[in-house]
Amino acid sequence: MDPVPKCASMLKCINDEQKKVLTVKPGITDVASIAYSNENAILSKYENPEEGYICEIMPAKIKLNLQYISNRSFAKDIGVIAETIRKIFIVFN
What we know:
Layout lengths: L30 H5 L3 H5 L5 H22 L3 H19 L1
């Protein structure tokens, strides 16, 4: 998983419950990265992409990561890795 916010200024935008994602050691992929692999397309709709990230994407990614870490397991980790690989092949094919 990689639940770490993009920069320190974004930390002030999250509450204590959401900060639980920061207790997880970052990894190479996570459920939120898979779900928001089209992040650039979403942000292109915003005049201010940073505002779009903070208002729309970051809260949704944090929610996904909180759900994941509350029920994590080795099998789910393998599933996330497999889904990441699948997503990569879809993008490049």
